[in-house]
TrEMBL record:
<dbReference type="InterPro" id="IPR050267">
    <property type="entry name" value="Anti-sigma-factor_SerPK"/>
</dbReference>
<dbReference type="GO" id="GO:0004674">
    <property type="term" value="F:protein serine/threonine kinase activity"/>
</dbReference>
<feature type="domain" description="Histidine kinase/HSP90-like ATPase">
    <location>
        <begin position="47"/>
        <end position="158"/>
    </location>
</feature>
<keyword id="KW-0418">Kinase</keyword>
<dbReference type="InterPro" id="IPR036890">
    <property type="entry name" value="HATPase_C_sf"/>
</dbReference>
<protein>
    <submittedName>
        <fullName>Histidine kinase-like ATPase domain-containing protein</fullName>
    </submittedName>
</protein>
<dbReference type="Pfam" id="PF13581">
    <property type="entry name" value="HATPase_c_2"/>
</dbReference>
<keyword id="KW-0808">Transferase</keyword>
<dbReference type="InterPro" id="IPR003594">
    <property type="entry name" value="HATPase_dom"/>
</dbReference>
<feature type="region of interest" description="Disordered">
    <location>
        <begin position="1"/>
        <end position="31"/>
    </location>
</feature>
<keyword id="KW-0723">Serine/threonine-protein kinase</keyword>
Length: 165
């Protein structure tokens, strides 16, 4: 991140018509679960990142008041990018992105139709191009894994990150 910039790229809330603050509108609590269907879409990775960034604004992670909070939000956006990119490259494309949050953690889920399992390449070689996605996920997350649903083909790859303090 640049030290000359007072905020990280994309760390400003998008302008909306609601910025005027209508006194007749009762604020609703943010939804703890967000879903984005991705089947058959183009520009999937930036779309997933934008969707996640908006959820982070709605949940109060952004705009970030401290460097630690900004880093936590950037980690979330990076992990979303890695999980969705892996689904594009290795699983025939993602079907859905789900974001679930509570006071302690944020869970990211990417659903795809593939039977294959993601795994960090071992041994990890930092100088080699490619193959770093799941290693990055493993390093940034509290935990990650794969869930299979017996009623449908494919899997859900999930990752959990700590909520900023």
């Amino acid at each position: 991140m640049s030290t000359t910039r007072p905020y990280a790229a994309g760390d400003r809330r998008p302008a909306t018509e609601d910025d005027g603050g209508d006194p007749d509108v009762v604020p609703q609590p943010p939804e703890p679960v967000r879903r984005l269907l991705l089947t058959g879409e183009s520009g999937i990775v930036p779309r997933a990142r934008d969707f996640t960034r908006q959820a982070l604004y709605d949940w109060g992670w952004l705009p970030a008041a401290t460097a630690d909070r900004r880093a936590a939000a950037e980690d979330v956006l990076l992990v979303v990018s890695e999980l969705v990119t892996n689904a594009c490259l290795h699983a025939g494309g993602p079907e859905e992105l789900r974001l679930l949050h509570n006071a302690k953690a944020l869970r990211l889920e990417v659903v795809d139709g593939s039977a294959g399992d993601p795994a960090p390449r071992t041994p990890h070689r930092a100088g080699r191009p490619g193959g770093h996605g799941m290693f990055i996920v493993q390093r940034l997350c509290l935990d990650w894994g794969v869930v299979r649903d017996a009623s449908r083909p494919g899997k859900t790859v999930w990752a959990e990150l700590a909520a900023p303090s």
